[in-house]
Automatic annotation (TrEMBL):
Superkingdom, natural source: Eukaryota
InterPro entries linked: Quinoprotein_ADH-like_sf, WD40/YVTN_repeat-like_dom_sf, WD40_PAC1, WD40_rpt
Record keywords, A-Z: Repeat, WD repeat
The WD repeat ranges on this chain: 118-159
Record's keyword annotation contains Transport: no
Pfam family, one: WD40
SUPFAM superfamilies in the record: Quinoprotein alcohol dehydrogenase-like
Protein name according to UniProt: Serine-threonine kinase receptor-associated protein
Length: 169
């Protein structure tokens, strides 16, 4: 996985759990650290201050401006073993995660407490991201659907915007 953190920094995540920070001007490694499992997903926060890493059954949050100090790490009831990921809300108050069990969950960023659980896919969640405004998030699944979830109410509505599944007549 690769994520651009700023005009001068990028991060790569490897299947052995290694996260490497790269200086894009000098083409050199500036920092390297390990997480406990294969890196399945990485994201830079909208303001570029936080690096999110989903690996194994955990999600990690690193402070980009403090030499990638670990802000939070939460064990989750989700496996990122083969798919899935996590996305931090633009206000950094919560994050959404999904993986092999087909459920989409929203957690509190400070405590890791489960806030919401959503069902809308019939296959593993492969990817997910918050919108820039944070009013919604999108999920993509192995079942061929992409869903947009509105999170301005407790009963988040999901709209299917793409469905590549086929049915035989």
């Amino acid at each position: 996985k690769v994520v651009v953190l700023s005009d001068r920094l990028a991060a790569t995540g490897e299947v052995d759990g290694t996260v490497t920070i790269w200086d894009l001007d000098a083409y050199t490694q500036t920092r390297q650290f390990k997480v406990d499992a294969d890196v399945m997903d990485m994201e830079a926060s909208r303001d570029g201050q936080v690096l999110t890493v989903a690996a194994g059954k955990q999600v990690y949050f690193y402070d980009v401006n403090k030499d990638f100090a670990l802000l939070n790490a939460f064990p989750l009831p989700i496996s990122f073993a083969e798919e899935g990921g996590a996305s931090l809300h633009p206000t950094e108050s919560k994050f959404v995660a999904g993986g092999s069990d087909t459920w989409v969950r929203v957690f509190d960023f400070k405590t890791g407490e489960l806030l919401e659980t959503h069902k809308g896919h019939h296959g593993p969640v492969r990817c997910l991201r918050y919108s820039p405004s944070g009013d919604s998030f999108a999920t993509g699944s192995e079942d061929g659907t992409i869903r947009i979830w509105q999170n301005d109410s407790k009963s988040a509505a999901a709209t299917s915007i793409a469905d590549t599944t086929t049915s035989s007549s």
